[in-house]
Amino acid sequence: MRPTIKKIAVITSGGDAPGMNAALRAVARSCAYYKIECIGFYRGYQGMIEGDYTELTARSVKNIIGKGGTILKSARSDEFRTKEGRKKAYDNLKKINVDGLILIGGDGTFAGGVTFGKEYKIPFIGIPGTIDNDIAGTNFTIGYDTALNTVVESIDKIRDTASSHNRLFFIEVMGRDAGFIALNAGVGAGAEEILLPEEDLGLDRLLESLQKSKQRGKSSSIVVVSEGDKIGKNVFELAEYVNENLPEYEVRVSVLGHMQRGGSPSCFDRVLASRMGVKAVESLLEGKADVMVGLVKDKIITSSIEEAIKSSHSINKELLRISDILSV
Ligand code: F6P
């Protein structure tokens, strides 16, 4: 039998991503439309444990669709990893009669939801929100498109100065375990080389490619490096290695860091978040549980969240080939 959903709680958890607010707005407004109550816990699972929440009404989410960050704040809760922490969270949900949960975040957030869902009978729906785009079950996560645009804009600026001074830049972008940002922003910004967590292209190949660039008359070069690249050297170590082996290059390093997670969401992310937020609420009302919403072939679908965190969303290796051809 379908559970009757009268009250939904939503959280934003893990690394924040532009578009999380647009998703919160969509969840709150869908609840208002279907005449159910909506509350938001602050700081992800930690707010559930502490009973720290606010009511989300259609009006309380006004003018947030274009705001970066998350009005509910975000955190990675160590306490929620413990049985006692999860029990506290469940007791708080029951105390205020929450019938269903919407979890906006990445794989860590989803893994927490799966554990919680096995221990306590409370249906939840996941909305993928992370700049890393590393969630199976969706072609795009909320925040990824905005982050890509931020990175491309930054690399364009670095290219200006690299070109004026005939320099080689190593640019570190986010992606501890996933190279989506590095690969797509690298191709979008015309980088000479792209180093990823998924592929070890080797240091010899890097030197060879940079040597060729010089011989072909390139005045500046950009190497985009994922923070978790597989060669196993960080961006400063890579720069030093090239400095020692190719003295003809003047090398500089730029770490883009957390600016990649901020800023007003792109139109793509706002629309994606709006569609996913509505679908999440409607899925709970239809009696679905423990699934995530995702964008696949331009349709918003639901799929098993447990499967999504077990499998990986793989990078498009064809883009590496394209990057090689175009950096000739
Ligand atoms: O949200 C994912 C991510 O952006 C990763 O790419 C990065 O490694 C990580 O967050 C850093 O997050 P924090 O500084 O919040 O721990």
Q: Can you walk through the features of this model?
A:
This protein has eleven helices and eleven strands. The protein is α/β, with parallel strands linked by helices and 328 residues long. It folds into two domains: 183 residues, Rossmann fold, CATH 3.40.50; 118 residues, Phosphofructokinase domain (Rossmann fold, 3-Layer(aba) Sandwich), CATH 3.40.50.460. The chain has a seven-stranded mixed β-sheet, sandwiched between helices. It has a four-stranded parallel β-sheet with strand order 7-8-6-9, with helices on both faces. A hairpin with a 2-residue loop joins strand 10 and strand 11. Helix 1 runs parallel beside helix 9, helix 5 packs across helix 6 and helix 6 runs parallel beside helix 11. The N and C termini lie far apart (62 Å). Bound molecules: 6-O-phosphono-beta-D-fructofuranose.
Fraction in beta strands: 15-25%
- Number of alpha- plus pi-helical segments: 11
Bound compounds, please?
A: 6-O-phosphono-beta-D-fructofuranose
> What is the annotated CATH architecture of the largest domain?
3-Layer(aba) Sandwich
User: Quick one: CATH class of the largest domain?
Assistant: Alpha Beta
List keywords for this structure.
4-stranded parallel beta sheet; 41% helix; single chain; 328 residues; 11 strands; 11 helices; 2 domains; Rossmann fold; elongated; alpha/beta; 17% strand; binds 6-O-phosphono-beta-D-fructofuranose; 7-stranded mixed beta sheet
